[in-house]
Amino acid sequence: MSRLVVVSNRVAVPGESRAGGLAVALEAALEEHGGLWFGWSGKTSREGSGQLHERREGDIRYLTVDLSRTDLDAYYNGFANRTLWPLLHFRLDLVDYDRKTREGYARVNALFAEKLAPLLKDDDLVWIHDYHLIPLASMLRERGIGCRIGFFLHVPMPSSDLLAAMPNHSRLFSSLYAYDLVGFQTRRDVERFQDYVRLFGGGKVLRDGMLQAPGGRRFRAAAFPISIDTAGIARQSAAAVNKTGIRGLRASLDRRDLAIGVDRLDYSKGLPERFHGFERYLDRHRDQKGSLTYLQIAPVSRGDVSEYRKLRSELEQISGHINGAHAQPDWTPLRYVNRNFAHGTLTGFYRMARVGLVTPLRDGMNLVAKEFVAAQDPEDPGVLVLSLLAGAAYELKEALLVNPHDYDGVADAIAIAATMSLDKRKERWHAMMKHLRKHDIGYWRRSYLEALETA
Ligand SMILES: O=P(O)(O)OC[C@H]1O[C@H](O[C@H]2O[C@H](CO)[C@@H](O)[C@H](O)[C@H]2O)[C@H](O)[C@@H](O)[C@@H]1O
Ligand SMILES: O=c1ccn([C@@H]2O[C@H](COP(=O)(O)OP(=O)(O)O)[C@@H](O)[C@H]2O)c(=O)[nH]1
């Protein structure tokens, strides 16, 4: 079996790791193959970029690199999160294109290539993750690396016209041609990438997912929808019931039902729209008023990027307005919390909720949607209200699917979810759980790595 080398912007070093599906999946893959996980250390250094940190845990070697403040600002806060993130989430209006941050992004990718290339062997399998590292394979190839290299894009691939609106787009996106396998979350993302290659990228779409770059190099593009540790989350949520934090939330609800949302504070997650949808629910379904409390957990994310700071103050304003207009002396309709919670606690919260609200404007997948389903009590499952514009909607078809821009539709879906009969709730939940049991995180990584091995 080949050694696996995983490269991602964030590395879940044991002890420092943030809970999440990706860490679980990649750790299990590295344990199976033995290997190396390489990426940013999460730290800035006054001595400049390049200082390496190493840690070993069994057969896994974690190698991380510090970045200077200037490089981090250009690469992560700049080009990755102010240019590529909005572009890939269909938000041309928010794209800030700047040659300087683009150079910083290229510089950090080149630094990764320089540190990684000497460590690679011909029979390694290299798996690079996400929009932070698009040009990395081409930079490794320039340094003579010939082993199999795969890429997985965790975020959406937008329409090709949007990609083509970015200055110098082909220099960046044609660097994807250096991979052997390019993985996307959904079939639609693959189709949109094929359109780009055909219409703007000078390449050809062949049969069976194969693509041909202008120089004749062939590579494959396919969908591998990421998932969760379904069985693990079901066990974790059942065990969470008696934890203090969970009991505290239940007691505070005073027998009211709970609706829950869990999202990084990001404009792609559609939080202002969701708040408006909830307010519309309070207005349109007065008979239900006072029977449902909505808890929105929204840990601050990318706080150095101005759009994220603006969003935070916008949400504070809307949540204050909703509670001011609708709260009663003994009931606050919306609880808005900017804290990060451990996975073990979140799964207990999900299980307690009658309604799960996942309404992004665009999302590559959205693991919270899948976690919400897996965490439900089989005897009394809650209902998922899910945006049609999340990757997860391609699989979780028995959720109540909504368009997040349609506030009335979101409002009515909340009302339907809150009053759905037990039989209907069970029927929908069983169908989604059946899918998630088979298509779990292990299925995702096995299918990707098998495809890369045979690429
Ligand atoms: O690393 P951050 O800047 O703090 O952001 C966290 C991650 O956000 C994005 O997640 C995406 O990946 C999920 C798993 O595939 C997917 O379900 C979700 O739809 C995506 O938004 C980002 O792509 C990651 O690189 C970040 O680490
Ligand atoms: O307070 C929190 C909020 C979120 N999460 C986890 O962060 C991940 C978010 O993944 P998702 O795909 O939904 O969105 P992303 O943030 O990656 O865009 C999920 O595993 C959540 O359980 C967490 O552990 N604590």
Automatic annotation (TrEMBL):
Pathway: Glycan biosynthesis; trehalose biosynthesis. InterPro entries: Glyco_trans_20 (IPR001830), Trehalose_OtsA (IPR012766). Coiled coil: none annotated. Keywords: Glycosyltransferase, Transferase. Its EC number is 2.4.1.15. It is an enzyme of class 2 (transferase). One of its GO terms (molecular function) is alpha,alpha-trehalose-phosphate synthase (UDP-forming) activity. It catalyses: D-glucose 6-phosphate + UDP-alpha-D-glucose = alpha,alpha-trehalose 6-phosphate + UDP + H(+). The keyword NADP does not apply. It comes from the Bacteria. The keyword Chaperone does not apply. Belongs to the glycosyltransferase 20 family. Homotetramer. Probably involved in the osmoprotection via the biosynthesis of trehalose. Catalyzes the transfer of glucose from UDP-alpha-D-glucose (UDP-Glc) to D-glucose 6-phosphate (Glc-6-P) to form trehalose-6-phosphate. Acts with retention of the anomeric configuration of the UDP-sugar donor. This is Trehalose-6-phosphate synthase. It comes from Luteimonas salinilitoris.
